[in-house]
# Entry
Amino acid sequence: MAPDLLLGIDIGNTVVKAVLFDLSGRQIARHGVDGTTLKPAPGMVERPVAELWANARAAISGCLAGVDPGRIAAIGLAGHGNGLYLLDKAGAPLLGIQSLDGRAGALAAALDRKAGEALHAICLQRPWPAQTPALLAWVKAHRPEVYAQAGTLCFAKDIIGFHLTGQRATEVSDMSGAGLLRLPEACYDPDLMALYGLHDALPLLPPLHQPTDIIGHVTADAATATGLRAGTPVVAGFFDVVASALGSGAVGAGAVSIVLGSWSINQIFADSPARDPRVFMVTAFGPGRFASMDNSATSAANLEWYVRTLIERPGHTGDPFAMVNDLVGQAPVAPDDPMFHPFLYGGRQGAHQRGGFFGLAGWHDEGHLLRALYEGVAFEHRRHVQVLTASGARIAQVWLSGGGTRSAHWPQMMADVLGLPVQLGTAEETGALGAAMAAAVGTGLCPDEAAAVARMAHTRATLAPDPARQTLHDRRFAVWQRLTAAMEPFWADLAGMAQP
# Structure
């Protein structure tokens, strides 16, 4: 029997997921394993690097339960971008920093003042706190003993690829998304590294591949650890935002992918890279294929914080996210309802930005707070999309994905806030499906990403804006923008108070 399944492995900031798909994109099996988040100091968000492979082994084994591993044609990878993952010179785990980390905020700001324009001219990105080279520069400056031990700079998914194949490898979408490649050529550049103050870090960068390249095959040791068949091809895979876009159905110039996930991800595919300095980053994911992005840690991470901090207390039972959606649906709507700034982990316009509820009155209840949170996240997505369109990007279609699409209310609110129809794919695990698409292309099952999307991604709904709600959100968005501007001096003062 010819292999008829593809395995997508998606490594998020918290969960490692292994998902099996058939060649039409139908999900066959899934297993996810929660990881450990470490917060060694305010603004620092880390994870144990060794746990990544341990959790991937468990996820893969769980996903393969009862499945003949010989049916798997190939394995594709996806993972969160930026942050910093280091292996030492022997290939052992050294350091894992998540992309929610803010320790390099001051360093990134100083680097931007000194070399921001020169950096943007090469990589089409300016320094920001959780950017991989900014974090590496912070490690070099503040933890020189760790920097001296470093042997390989990886991304989250590359750690899994290394353990599966024994090969140190990465690919252009993650590397360009981290500001570590010259664009549009998508290649390493010593002048770029020197601008970051990392001229001596070039040897840390692993061999560079295209996302659909086969980087190796499952080793005998990895097969024993996971239940996979030794010799199964492993494809480099995608930066997870690109993987999620493809998995949701977005493909081709003008396709917009918005991810309601831990991060607010807003990207438009194009045939050439945007050179507007207002655009957060440009990622290359193949020859003549680029995604312009404006992103920040301001999306569903806010809801997760709310649930973990305020709902999941001792004695709580039931599904907290189902409770949240019920509360949002029950609260009556009024033009002067509370507002929320979704900046619990800083904002695109500065790590100093903070979250907050505004306009509370005694008649508001938890449903009003939660709807304000939903709306505040949607408003920041809208602001990001406006940055992209101001740069000249053309919107053809909008695809919405991410954990927030499981809500009964959030996707429609996104359509109302954006004033655009949004399409929802059938796949719940869009990142893993995008990884599986990379595997399909890499092994010749599909000729390119467009063919893979046509074959494996399917639409479950298209949500049109409600005219009345759209008008209301337009009015509230204008007030929310003025509120954001008015808070800037306060946030700056608060950040200054935290300095020693």
Notes: The chain is about 40% helix and 20% strand. The radius of gyration is 22 Å.
